[in-house]
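Input C-alpha cells:
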C-alpha cells in the first residue's frame, strides 16, 4: 500500500501494490500494467482488478470475491483483453479492434465476415448493417469473386470471351455470355 506524507511524498507500505511517480501514487502493477485491485488516491481502497478502472469498464465486480464477471467479448482477471470471433482471433486474417464496446475484427485485405472467415479475391468488400458481400471486379463472379468469366472463359480488357462449346456426345451443352459472364446451359 502507498501513502503520502505531509510534504507530498509517497511511501510504500506494501511492496508491489503501487509506486510513487512525480509525488503521485500509481496503483497499477509495474510489471503487468494491471491494477491488481487497489484503488484510490493512496491505493487504499480494495476492489476488483482492472486497467484504468475497475474491471477495465468491461465487466461487473463481484465484491464478495473481488472477481470480475466480464461482458461477452472480454476476458482476463480485470476484463482487460478483447476476444474477437474466430480461432485464433479473426481467423488469423485480421486484427482484433478493442476500441469499441464489443471487440470487432478488422479484416486483412481480401477477407470479410465477422471473423474474417470469407475470401474476397477479385473484388471490394462491402458491409451494410450486419451483412458482408464482395463487389466483384470486371469478369469475376461468385461469392468471393473467384470465378473468372464463370469459370468458362477468359477476360480481355474487362470483357469475357467464353470457351468454345463442347461437341460430340455433349452437343446438348453450349456456353453464352450473359452480363459479361460465361454460363453453361443444358438443352434437353
Amino acid at each position: 500500500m502507498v501513502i503520502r506524507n505531509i510534504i507530498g511524498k509517497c511511501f510504500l507500505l506494501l511492496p508491489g501494490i503501487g509506486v510513487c511517480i512525480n509525488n503521485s501514487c500509481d496503483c497499477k502493477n509495474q510489471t503487468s500494467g494491471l491494477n491488481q485491485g487497489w484503488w484510490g488516491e493512496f491505493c487504499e481502497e480494495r476492489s476488483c482488478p482492472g486497467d484504468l478502472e475497475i474491471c477495465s469498464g468491461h465487466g461487473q465486480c463481484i465484491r464478495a470475491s473481488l472477481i470480475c464477471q466480464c461482458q461477452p467479448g472480454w476476458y482476463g482477471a480485470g476484463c482487460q483483453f478483447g476476444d474477437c470471433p474466430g480461432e485464433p482471433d479473426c481467423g488469423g486474417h485480421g486484427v482484433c479492434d478493442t476500441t469499441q464496446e464489443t471487440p470487432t475484427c478488422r479484416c486483412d485485405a481480401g477477407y470479410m465476415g465477422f471473423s474474417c472467415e470469407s475470401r474476397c479475391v477479385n473484388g471490394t468488400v462491402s458491409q451494410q448493417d450486419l451483412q458482408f458481400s464482395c463487389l466483384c471486379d470486371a469478369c469475376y463472379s461468385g461469392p468471393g469473386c473467384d470465378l473468372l468469366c464463370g469459370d468458362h472463359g477468359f477476360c480481355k480488357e474487362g470483357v469475357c470471351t467464353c470457351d468454345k462449346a463442347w461437341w460430340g456426345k455433349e452437343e446438348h451443352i453450349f456456353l453464352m455470355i450473359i452480363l459479361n459472364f460465361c454460363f453453361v446451359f443444358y438443352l434437353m
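The longest strand covers residues 123-128. DSSP finds no helices and 22 strands in the chain.
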